[in-house]
């Protein structure tokens, strides 16, 4: 059985228009070519698709059953062709992006929507991980791109472009002892339990760890829940308060006597210098660079 896309399209058009001649006009073919295509399709399928009684062909029950599947099959065949063309032009078979946990509330989905519009057949996989794990996923090539905070020390293989600034704040529940203090010393901070977003690998020290006593979680939503219960203080994205106004009534911004309570970081799009990036990743990087050039 050797059925091609053109045969299926002719079959679909004959069913929809109700005649060989009408299908031929719609497809820009001569009626004899349409009639012959249907006859060959019937031979290949060993089915009678149309009763040829009277002026117009009447689809059989078998033809109507196949017609229900034909449109979806034609769509999938077109998608398959588009994907093949895209892959031959250098498109990745899939694009894996890791987003640092504290940034999951930001507008990173705008970039995903942009990629979807440009490469509708691209498989995109999004992962969330603490900063240290996100970098590890990038370095071991489990992800091609990472959206993460700026790093104090850069790996030699890292390449990046800045996206935006993000503000983090130190907070505690209103009932927590630290929240009762107008000014908090660094020593008080060291002695109070910190809820820290960190790698599951306990050998990796979190970048924003200050207290000697700490509990770890791998995402800032869990951290926020524990902090809100008064189980410790922690550092959360300021944007969370805009996302969830209720937090303003549950949490207090801590005021330190020894250093500023606000931590401002650049957010970067990061990739490995040695990686051979595909068309979608290159497109996103170029788009962000163009945005930065226009804003400067």
TrEMBL record:
GO terms for molecular function: DNA-binding transcription factor activity; transcription cis-regulatory region binding. InterPro entries: LysR_HTH_N, LysR_subst-bd, WH-like_DNA-bd_sf, WH_DNA-bd_sf. The keyword Translocase does not apply. Residues 1-60 form the HTH lysR-type domain. Gene3D superfamilies: 3.40.190.290, Winged helix-like DNA-binding domain superfamily/Winged helix DNA-binding domain (1.10.10.10). Keywords: DNA-binding, Transcription, Transcription regulation. SUPFAM superfamilies: Periplasmic binding protein-like II, Winged helix' DNA-binding domain. PANTHER family: HTH-TYPE TRANSCRIPTIONAL REGULATOR, LYSR FAMILY TRANSCRIPTIONAL REGULATOR. Belongs to the LysR transcriptional regulatory family. This is DNA-binding transcriptional LysR family regulator.
């Amino acid at each position: 059985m050797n059925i091609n896309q053109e045969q299926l399209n002719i079959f679909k058009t004959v069913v929809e228009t109700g005649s060989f001649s009408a299908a031929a006009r719609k497809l820009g073919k001569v009626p004899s070519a349409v009639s012959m295509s249907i006859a060959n399709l019937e031979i290949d399928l060993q089915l009678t698709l149309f009763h040829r009684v009277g002026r117009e062909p009447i689809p059989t029950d078998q033809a109507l059953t196949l017609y229900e599947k034909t449109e979806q099959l034609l769509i999938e065949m077109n998608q398959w062709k588009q994907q093949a063309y895209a892959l031959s032009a250098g498109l990745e078979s899939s694009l894996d992006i890791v987003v640092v946990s504290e940034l999951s509330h930001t507008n990173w989905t705008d970039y995903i929507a942009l990629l979807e519009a440009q490469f509708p057949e691209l498989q995109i996989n999004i992962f969330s991980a603490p900063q240290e794990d996100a970098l590890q996923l990038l370095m071991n090539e489990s992800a091609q791109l990472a959206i993460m905070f700026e790093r104090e020390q850069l790996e030699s293989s890292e390449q990046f472009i800045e996206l935006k600034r993000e503000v983090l704040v130190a907070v505690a529940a209103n009932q927590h002892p630290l929240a009762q203090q107008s000014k908090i010393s660094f020593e008080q901070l060291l002695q109070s339990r910190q809820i820290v977003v960190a790698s599951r690998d306990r050998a990796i020290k979190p970048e924003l760890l200050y207290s000697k006593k700490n509990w770890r979680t791998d995402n800032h939503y869990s951290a926020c829940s524990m902090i809100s219960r008064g189980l410790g203080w922690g550092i959360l994205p300021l944007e969370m308060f805009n996302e969830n106004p209720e937090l303003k009534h549950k949490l207090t911004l801590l005021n330190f006597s020894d250093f500023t309570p606000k931590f401002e970081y650049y957010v970067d799009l990061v990739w490995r210098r040695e990686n051979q990036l595909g068309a979608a990743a290159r497109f996103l990087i170029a788009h962000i660079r163009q945005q930065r050039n226009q804003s400067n």
